[in-house]
Fold this sequence. Notes:
This protein is of the alpha/beta class.
Amino acid sequence: MVWTGAVAPDNFRARFNQLPQRILPMKSGVKKVVLAYSGGLDTSVILKWLQETYACEVVTFTADLGQGEELEPARKKAELLGVKPENIFIDDLREEFVRDFVFPMFRANTLYEGTYLLGTSIARPLIAKRQIEIAKQVGADAVAHGATGKGNDQVRFELGYYALKPDVTVIAPWREWDLNSRTQLLEFAEKHQIPIAKDKRGEAPYSTDANLLHISYEGKALEDPWVEPDEDMYTRSVAPEKAPDEAEYVEIEYEKGDAVAVNGVRLTPAALLTELNRLAGKHGIGRLDLVENRFVGMKSRGVYETPGGTLLSVAHRGIESITLDREALHLKDELMPRYAKLIYNGFWFSPEREALQALIDSTQQRVNGVVRLKLFKGSARVVGRKSPNSLYRLDYVTFEADSVYNQKDAEGFIKLNALRLRLNSIAKGL
């Protein structure tokens, strides 16, 4: 009830002011909201909180990005919390994720701060895109997410929302409610009879985010950057020390900068990454312990497993080494940190990211061929590469006698490049 008169009755005002803060309407006019819903504790509490606080219809969206978890329990939980069956969306986005987001990013050899393969960052624009599509489909006027007010994901989700639907209303409960601790979330869940996984009742050691490209671990024991992660934390790779004692060779075939086959077998994008995850994980490849700079201003420590992505990163550089012109390759390397930062900070749908992507993709038309990797105890090394578009010419680089390169030409080349250095030294009186 909202009093619309100039003066509210005293008894109404007194009762209104006594209401708990979290059930006060934060925004008006929201009739239907699409929630990015995992089925976990946080988003289940958010679902109920939205129903209470906004008195609106809630539509849940759960994305299958290859996180390796059964998603049907999310459907049952949403139904239990009062969501209509026709308002529950569980979409398999694995192929789209790899084809339209992971692969374009890997064409740029993208690394954030020199090491991070952006496994979490690259998933957010796809989730945002599908949320907005569902919002348009069901006539929702708002979207909501479960990202906290301290992290990067709130920025990534919301920049995506606004880029795709400029007039959308965004609800970010972690920036609005007063449930500021795990204990308060559990109390809210118990009060509203929200099922809680048993492992959530204890203090779980790590917060995780997973998809087909990677899994991340943050928080709790990892908040001290001096403390080494427990070995039993890892789920996608064996310890390098326990990896097989014999190396394994893997061949990855490329067409126009994208991997299309593993060991001669053509696979769909998602199936290919799944197979590379298996091969690399078996050899303890793809672990990263990183202190990174968040977009919101703080440093955070995260541990990542990106086994198949690590192979793709190494192999793509390998095939580019023989197919890309020197200056095109160097230009890509100069632009890559800017491109990586755009993805990390949530600007996937920005005009500058799209412009960079067009430039990057224009360099990939002749990036075709096969790379052979050697996998052994945590490492992946390029040990062979071949391409029908190779710029590598044995007749030019051989140490044996040749008839195509006149070594005397190098003298004039050197003197011309040295001219400005000589003039600079003369001006200094040397």
